[in-house]
Amino acid sequence: MEETISFLENNDIYFTESEDLKLRSSFRIGQKADLAIFPDSDEKLIKTVLFFKKRSVKYLILGRCSNVLFPDYNINYPLIFTDRLISLQFDDDNPNYLICDSGVSLAKLVNFAAQYGFGGMEFAGGIPGSVGGAVCMNAGAYGKNISDVLLWTDYINQDGKVLKISNKEHSFGYRKSIFTNNDVIIRSCFFMKKMDISDIKNEIRTLSLKRRNSQPLEFPSAGSVFKRPDGYYVGAMVDECGLKGFNIGGAEVSKKHSGFIINTGNATASDVKELISFVRQKVYDKFKVNLECEIRFID
Fold it and tell me: For residue 260, which phi and psi values (nearest 5 degrees)?
C-alpha cells in the first residue's frame, strides 16, 4: 500500500482511503474500499493501470456504479473510478462524431449533443451509467443499443497495450462485448445525427416520462436485474410466479416493475443475492427458462 500511495502522490493522482461504497452504489449497498483512485486525465488513468499491471496487483475499474452490487464486507484491493474523466467534444474533422471519455454520464452525453442539434442517442439519456460501462455491456433501451451508434473505442487491454478498435471489433451482443473486467475503456466515439433541437428535446422528455411511469426510480436499485430471454418478458414471468412485492430482508421485487429488485432501505448484498436466486429458481420451475443476471457482482 505504501508504494501505491507514494506513486499516486508523486503523479498528482487524487485518491481516498476508506471510501464509503454505499454512497457510490445506485443500490445504496456496500461497505468500504481501502483505496479509491480518481484519475483526471487519460495519461493518469493509463499510468495507474500500468502501475498495477506491472506489479500484478488486482484492481477494478468502475464508473457510476449503476449496475453493480458491492459486497457486505470491505474491499481491500484498489478501485479506480472514472468520475473525473469527463471530456466530450465533437471531432474537428467530422462534426457528426462525438468523442467522450469513459466517465461521461450518458445523460450528459445526450444533453450535450442536443444543445448543438445532434441526436440519435435519446434512448440512452435515462440509463444511469457512464460511457465506459455502457460500451462494455452494450447498454440499451427502447429497442436501441450502444452498438447502433458507436464508431470506435480506445482501451487498455489485458497486456497493458493501448488499442483502438472499430465497432465490429467490439463483438457486440445482447448486453455484452469483447471487453472483460481486466480491460479499461479510455474513450469512445459515437455517430450523431443532425436534427431539430426541439425534436430531440421532445424525444428526451417523452422517454424520460415513460421511464418514470414504468420503473421504480424512487427506490435504490441497479436497474433491470435479468437479461431478457428470447421470446419472453422477465417482468411478466416474475408476475406469473406471484413474486411481485416479494421480499427477503430489505430487498424486494418491485411492485411497479417486477424486472427490478429494489432496496427498501436496509437491504444487504446477501439479501439481494438470495432474492435473485429465489426468483431465478421460481421462474425456472414454472417456465424452464434460466434467467441471466445483468448485474455485476463485486467481490
Answer: -110, 145
User: Choosing from 224, 252, 254, 280, which is the catalytic residue?
Assistant: 224
The active-site residue, picked from 24, 28, 64, 175, is 175
The pairing of beta strand 88-90 with beta strand 162-166: unpaired
Q: Rounded to an integer, what distance in angstroms lies between the CA atom of residue 32 and that of residue 24?
A: 10
Residue 225, φ and ψ in degrees, nearest 5? -80, -40
224 has catalytic annotation: yes
17 annotated active-site: no
- Torsion sign over Cα 253, 254, 255, 259: negative
Bridge partner residues of 75 (DSSP): 33
Of 19, 122, 203, 294, the catalytic one is 294
**212 a catalytic residue:** no
Map residue 203 onto helix, strand or coil: helix
pTM metric for this prediction: 0.92
Which grid cell is 246? 416479494
Which DSSP symbol is given to 214? H
> What is the block-wise mean pLDDT of the chain (299 residues), using blocks of 10 residues?
94 97 96 97 95 94 94 97 95 96 96 96 93 94 94 92 96 92 91 96 94 94 93 95 97 96 97 98 97 94
Instruction: Give the DSSP H or E segment for 69.
Output: strand 68-69
DSSP 274: H
